[in-house]
Design brief:
Shape: globular
Helix content: 25-40%
Order of helices and strands: EHEHHHEEEEEEHEHHHHEEEEEHEHHHHH
CATH class of the largest domain: Alpha Beta
Number of helices: 15
CATH superfamily of the largest domain: FAD/NAD(P)-binding domain
Number of strands: 15
Bound molecules: flavin-adenine dinucleotide
Number of domains: 2
Length: 437
């Protein structure tokens, strides 16, 4: 079956859902493809606490009433903008509630191929159908960008796992788990594994752990002016990066790349310190040189403060972060990857998040080269969602509200084009959705 729509949003996480809410309000027909909040439900470990403050953990809509605070109030859940330990499960439930209220037209399919065809995009979907779209938005989060140092590559799962593919942790109960890394993922997993009864050892490259400061609740006006609260952290530098992501493009590309890749680097959330320090074996100044399987255990050759040593475990968890590389999205056609003109894996974007492929927008962590480190976090959607929707809305209107697109679609697509609309759009938006195909 072939259908058509104006805009295909690939990904149904906080970014994809927020963009959909804005596009609906702008009257732009679109489809959202992906499983709502998939990464948060399946990849992140149950029991995890959100690293971002509650006020920086919203999904965004052009109408009041859909913030995390609104959800918590309606469900009589505790809420504090700063200093709250927000459970992953609450964030997931909130995201699914947001979706049910504003984006009920999600199609839970994967895009298996995206290519250009006759001035539009042709998407092949995992249910065997095809979608033609004038525009496409890639909002896939960190998927496919897991970074494993070469010394740790080559061993099969579940002996060596990346922190970005862990999900449920129950398998680790009473197992020996070696974690490589010294940031939030490494420390957060170390605490959860330890509390489950695993024997945990963390190998840290640096000579100390950076712990984030305890949040300061109820600060005076002067204190807030001297060091404002930004979505990324407290202070003027994080504030500017959090609140004015569009300024980032004015910086030279090399510096932007360095800031996007390294700033707000490895550190542990304030609420983790008591669960880690003094409870878990942390080995500082370590470098893993080699890793191998001996029977059913993993053997790591490690250089540490006291020279070379051998560390063994049942499993190794690589918590060494993520590296954006758009070429790793296997569903992008070679022609699209070639036209993206990548800079070390990044696509440099226009001020409207449009890539060098006209009509192809990229957002979320993959947009951090152009809009700064806030795009690595949910908070970046506060700027990205309205910005992308405004640009698409203007283009859609300039093109005659979709009528011109119909002439591009193949006859078969035209016949079935109405399947591309959002049949289950919430009442508030139904008028807008039905302007479409
Ligand atoms: C362990 C961990 C903890 C984190 N904690 C925080 C935190 O506390 N606060 C914070 O702000 N950020 C946090 N982050 C970062 C955060 O995950 C990302 O910034 C955020 O997920 C980006 O949201 P997104 O909408 O871009 O993508 P995601 O939420 O990752 O959603 C991706 C979507 O893409 C869909 N998808 C994937 N492949 C396809 C395909 N081929 N076709 C169609 N759809 C597809 C999925 O189904 C899913 O719907 C954390 C990251 C990790 C790894």
């Amino acid at each position: 079956m072939i259908s058509s729509t104006d805009t295909a949003i690939i990904g149904a996480g906080p970014y994809g859902l927020s963009i959909s809410a804005y596009l609906s309000a702008a009257g732009v027909p679109h489809q959202v493809l992906g499983e709502p909040m998939f990464a948060w439900r399946n990849v992140m470990p149950p029991g995890m606490l959100m690293r971002s403050e509650a006020f920086a953990s919203d999904l965004y809509a052009p109408h009041a009433g859909y913030r995390l605070e609104d959800y918590c109030r309606q469900n009589r859940l505790p809420y504090a903008p700063i200093g709250m330990r927000l459970p992953l499960e609450t964030f997931v439930d909130y995201g699914l509630w947001f979706q049910s209220q504003l984006v009920s037209h999600v199609r839970t399919v994967e895009v298996t191929e995206l290519r250009r065809q006759d001035g539009c995009f042709r998407l092949t979907l995992s249910d065997g159908s095809t979608l033609l779209a004038r525009r496409a938005v890639v909002a896939l989060g960190l998927k496919g960008f897991e970074y494993t140092p070469s010394a740790l590559q080559g061993l099969p799962k579940p002996y060596v796992l990346h922190s970005g593919e862990i999900g449920n942790l129950m398998w680790a109960r009473s197992k020996r788990v070696v974690i490589v890394g010294g940031g939030q993922s490494a420390l957060g997993l170390a605490a959860l594994f330890n509390e489950l009864g695993a024997h945990v050892r963390v190998l840290v490259r640096g000579d100390s752990i950076t712990w984030n400061k305890d949040p300061e609740v109820g600060r005076s006006l002067v204190s807030r002016m001297l060091s404002p609260e930004g979505g990324l952290a407290q202070g003027w530098y994080p504030y500017v990066l959090s609140e004015f992501p569009y300024l980032f493009r004015a910086v030279g590309q090399r510096l932007r790349k360095r800031i996007a890749e390294t700033s707000f680097g490895p550190s542990g959330a304030w609420w983790l310190r008591d669960r880690v320090a003094g409870r878990i074996e942390l080995s500082m100044n370590t470098a893993v040189g080699h890793v191998a399987l001996r029977g059913s255990e993993v053997v790591l050759e490690v250089t540490g403060e006291n020279g070379p040593a051998t560390v063994t475990g049942d499993h190794v968890v690589v918590a060494t972060g993520f590296k954006v590389d758009m070429a790793k999205h296997g569903f992008l056609s070679p022609e699209i990857v070639g036209a993206l003109a990548l800079v070390g894996g990044w696509s440099d974007l226009s001020r409207n998040f449009e890539s060098s492929v006209p009509g192809l927008y990229i957002t979320g962590p993959a947009a951090a080269l152009s809009f700064g480190p806030v795009l690595r976090f949910v908070y970046g959607a506060k700027y990205a969602a309205p910005c992308i929707a405004r640009h698409i809305g203007l283009r859609h209107a300039a093109e005659g509200g979709g009528r011109a697109f119909e002439s591009l679609a193949a006859p078969q697509a035209l016949a079935e084009g109405s399947a591309g609309a959002a049949p289950h759009a919430p009442a508030a938006f139904r008028g807008a959705e039905s302007t479409a195909e």
